[in-house]
Amino acid sequence: MATLRHIAIAFACLLGMSAPALAENGYDLWLRYKPVDAAHRAAYRAANAVWVPGTVLSSVTLEAAAAELQQGVVELLGNSVLRCCSLGDGAVVIGTPSSSRAIAGLHLDLSAAGDEGYVIRSVTLEGHKAIAIAANRDIGVLYGVFAYLRLMQTGQSLSNLDIVSAPKTKLRLLNHWDNLNRTSERGYAGLSLWNWSQLPALDKRYTDYARANASIGINGAVLNNVNADLRIFSPEYLRKVAALANVFRPYGIKVYLSVLSTAPIQLGGLKTADPLDPAVVAWWKEEADTIYRAIPDFGGFLVKANSEGLPGPQDYGRTQADGANVMARALAPHNGVVIWRAFVYSPDNREDRAKQAYKEFVPIDGKFDANVLVQIKNGPLDFQPREPFSPLFGAIPKTNAMLEVQITKEYLGFATHLAYLGPLYEETLKSDTFAKGPGSTVAKVIDGELFGNALTGMAGVANTGTDPTWSGSIFNQANWYVFGRMAWKPEISSRAVAEEWVRQTFGNDPKVVQTSVAMMMASRQAVVDYMTPLGLNLIMGHGTHYGPAPWDDIGNRPDWKAPYYHHADGAGLGFNRTATGSNALEQYAPQVAAKFADKSNLDYLLWFHHVGWNEKLSTGRSLWDELVVRYTGGVDAVKKMRAEWAGLKGKVDSERFNLTARYLAIQQAEAQWWRDACLAYFQSFAKLPYPKGYKPPAHPLAYYELLNAGKNLDPALATGLSN
Questions:
Q1: Which of 510, 562, 604, 634 is the 20 to 30 A CA-CA neighbour of 20?
Q2: Furthest-apart CA pair in the chain: how many Å?
Q3: Would you kindly state where each structural domain of the chain is located, as residue ranges?
Q4: Which of 63, 75, 404, 410 is catalytic?
Q5: What whole-number distance in Å separates Cα of residue 659 and Cα of residue 649?
Q6: CATH superfamily of 4-16+26-165
Q7: Which one from 308, 322, 426, 467 is the annotated catalytic residue?
Q8: What does the pLDDT look like over 608-627, one tens digit per residue?
Q9: Alpha-carbon distance 259 to 379, whole Å?
Q10: Measured between alpha carbons, how far is 190 from 468 in angstroms, rounded to an integer?
Q11: Is there a catalytic annotation at residue 308?
Q12: Could you tell me the pTM of the whole model?
C-alpha cells in the first residue's frame, strides 16, 4: 500500500528525471502535457502545490490518480517545484471521504457524482486556499484528475472552481474487431494492439491505452472481433485476456469478449446450441463460472447472431431474446452482461434491408433479461457517412437499448481522409424519436432517462492499432476522443469537444485552434458531399468499402450490390421508402415520418425517395444539377481544408504537420475520384449535360469502373461481411 512517504519519493523521482526530447509522432495523443505559456504557468503554479494530505492510496486506482496528477502538473508547469508534505495556499487534495482525511473533513456533497463521477471545487483547508478533487469511489477520483489536468491543458481558469460531473451512460465501450492473428477487421492503423503470441507478457502500450481511455471516461473494451474466433475462450487465451484485464483494472476498464451462439457445439462438444436445451443452459453456466475464476470482474459477452450467415437462436426456431437470455442467466450471478447486436439481416429477407432489425426486435420488446442490452447501430443500415437514425431507438421501451457507432472510418475514407465524426454522433444523439412526444431524443433513450432503463450504454468500433499515431492519422485520434466524451455526456457539443481536443493535441495558439476546429467541423459534411450526397448510401467498393463503385453488381444477394441502394434508372435516382415503396417510413413516429417524407429535407432525399432527374428541388435546381453541385462542393471543401492546413506551417511540429498535409493531398485526389466516377455513372442514366461552370469527369465511365473494379472483381476474392 502506498503512503504519503511513497508520494514524496515519487515527487523526488519525477523532479529529478530529465526526459529526452521525443518526436511529436502522435503517440502521446491528447495527454501530451506540454508546458503551458508563461502567463498560465504563473497562475497555475500558485494553484498547484500538489498535496495529498492524509490520503491513503489504498488501491491501484488511487495510485494511478496520484501518479497522473503528479506527472501532469510537473510537465505542464515545466518541472516547477511541488510541495507534498506541508500545507499552503494552492494545495490540490484528492481522494474519497474514506481514503482522505482532508476530503472527509470538507464534508462535500458528493451525491450528484454517483459511483463514477467527481467534484472539483475550490475550498479552504486549514485556512489555506486549496482545490479538492473528490469522489465517492476511487475511479471517480481518477476521472476527476484527468478532468482537472484538461482544464490546465486547455488554458482554463483554476479560480473559483465548482464542477460536478457524472457519466450519463453506464457502459462506455470500445469494440475491437481484432482477430487472434493480429489483423483487425476494418482496422486502418496497423496491427491489433493485442500481441496474442507474446501475452501474457505485457507491453507499455497496454497501460498507455488504458490511460487514454480513462482520460475520456471509457470503462470497457471488447477485445475480439464480433465474427468471433472461439479459441479465445481456451485456457491458454483466457490467461492472456486476464493479463490485459490486470493492466486495465486500475483505470476502471473491464474486458469483454465476443462469442458465437454455437460455442456449446464448438467448445463444449454438444450436438446442439438450442438456447432452451438443458445441456446448453448448463454449458453456458459452466463456461461463465470458468471465465470469472480467471477474471473476477469480467464484463460479459458481445454477440452477433443470425446475421450475414452467422449462426444464432433462429436456427432452432428460437428468438433473439432466447439466445441472449441463456447467456445472461449464466453471467447474472457474476454481475456480467450480454450485449446483443441488432445488426441483423438474413439471406432470405425479400424486403428492404433497412426494415429488418425493427421487424425482428420490436415484437420481442420486454422479452430480454435485465442484464441484456440490445446494441443498435446509429442508422438502419451500416455506418454510412449519413443515415437517418435507426427506428429501433424509441421503439423498444422495455428493452435496454445501447447505441453503436463506428470510430474507425470503414465507409469514410479509412485513415487518410480527415472526417471528424463528432457531428455524426451529435446528429444521431439529438435526433428526436417522438417516442414519448417532443424531446424524446436518442440520447435520452440510451442514457435511460426516457424509459427508465437501468442498464445503459454507448459502444464505438475502435480505430486503434500499432501505428505510432494509434489511429492511423493525427485527426483520427479526435474520433476516439469525441466518442468517449459523448458517451460520458451525450448532450455535449461536438464543436466544444473538437476545440478541447485541438488544444490538448496541438496547443492553445489561437490560429491553430480556430483553423483546426473549422476544418474538423466542416470535414464530415465534405465527405458526405463527395461520396454520398442527398441521402445516397452504400455505393462504395465491394468488400473493401473503399472508393466509388455505384455500378458494383457482384455479390451473392441483392443487398450486397450497390444498385440495390440507389435504384438509378432512366427516370431518376433513389430508394422509394414511402408508402408507395418499401414503406420504411412507417417504422418511425408520425412526426419523424413526416419530416423524412418532406422532399425539402435534402439530407435524406434519396434515402426515402426515387426522384426524377429533372425534378426541381428546394434549392431551385434539378436533381441532376444538384448532384453535380454537391459532388463538386465536396471536392472544393477538401481543397479549402488543405489550404487552411498549409497556413499552419511552422505553428504545428513538422512531423505531425507533414503527415496531415500528405493525407489531405490524398483526400483531395480521392474526393475528385469519387466526384468524377459517380457523376460519370449517374450521367449514364440521366443523359443530361453538366450545368454551366461545372466540368465533366476527365475520363469515361469505363475508366472508373476499372479503377475500382466492382463487377470485374473475382467474387471468390470478395466478401459481403461488413459487421
A1: 510
A2: 81
A3: 4-16+26-165, 171-493, 528-717
A4: 410
A5: 12
A6: Chitobiase/beta-hexosaminidase domain 2-like (3.30.379.10)
A7: 308
A8: 999 999 999 999 999 999 99
A9: 24
A10: 9
A11: yes
A12: 0.95
